[in-house]
Each structure stands twice: as C-alpha cells, then as structure tokens.
Amino acid sequence: MDTFHADMLALSVTPGILISACGVVSTALYNRMGVILARIRSYHQRKVELLSNHQHHEVVDPQSLLDLIDSQIVAVTAKAKMVRNGLYCLLAAIIAFLLCSVFAGIAMVYDWFGLVALASGLVAVCLFITGLGWALREVTCAISPLEEETAYLQVLSSQHTLKRQERAKLKIAE
Question: In the chain, where are the structural domains located?
C-alpha cells in the first residue's frame, strides 16, 4: 500500500473514532441529564406536598425545608445547564467531525478542501474538549447538593435530639 492510500485511510478513520468517542460521552451525558431532571422533578413534588400539607411537623420547620428545596432546585438546575452545554458541544463536535470526513474526501479531487477539512477537524477537537470540560465541571459540582442536604439533616437531627432530651428531663422532674 503506498503512502497516499495509507494517509487517506488514516485521515478517514480518525474522525470516525472521534465521532464514536463523542457518541459514548454524549450517551453518558444524556443519561446524567435524565437523572438530574428526575431529581428536579422530585424536588418540585416535595415542595408541592409541603405547601399543600397544612399540618406542621414538630421537628421540621416548613420554611427552612422550603428554603432547602429551593436551594436544591437552583443547584441541580445549574448542573443540568452544565450537562446541556456539554451535550451541545459534543453534538456540534460530531457534526464538525462528519464535515471533516466529507471535506477530506473532497480533498482527493480538490486540494484546497484539505485546508477546510483540517480547519473542521480542529474545530471538532476544540468542541470535543470543551464538551468534556463541561462534563468535568458538572462532575465537580455533583456532590454540593448532597452536602447541603446532609448539613440540613444534621441540624434536624440535633434539634430532634435536644427536644427528646428536654422531654426526658421534664419526665424526670415530674
């Protein structure tokens, strides 16, 4: 096989491999987006239930719980936007890689299309890296809503323990 054909084979295979990589990451991000949206819906459900429940629980302050839910909705919605931005970049990268392949094929006939293919390939790689950057940014923020929930539950547990101890002291005093 001469070098020309070997170069063309390498040139046509590379975008295909990168398209597959974009597809794998996009699938993971689509799944992640589904989980995030389900979580936001569950927060909305909890908020509706809390607002429609007129009975006050002795341990839970309804307003602080509403504030927590609102904060969670904001934080998780921000994560959803990061995933969305990552998906936009990855899908655009797939289009750019496809154009790169098409232009590389056309470059066989018209040499100057080789520059267009190169530019398209560079744009695609930049979009792919940017999409991965958005995914990494979302991953770094993934634990923050859980940390906020944990802190809130620790406060609730402490309040519950104090009330239980006060009741026990009152029983002893009687």
Answer: 3-142
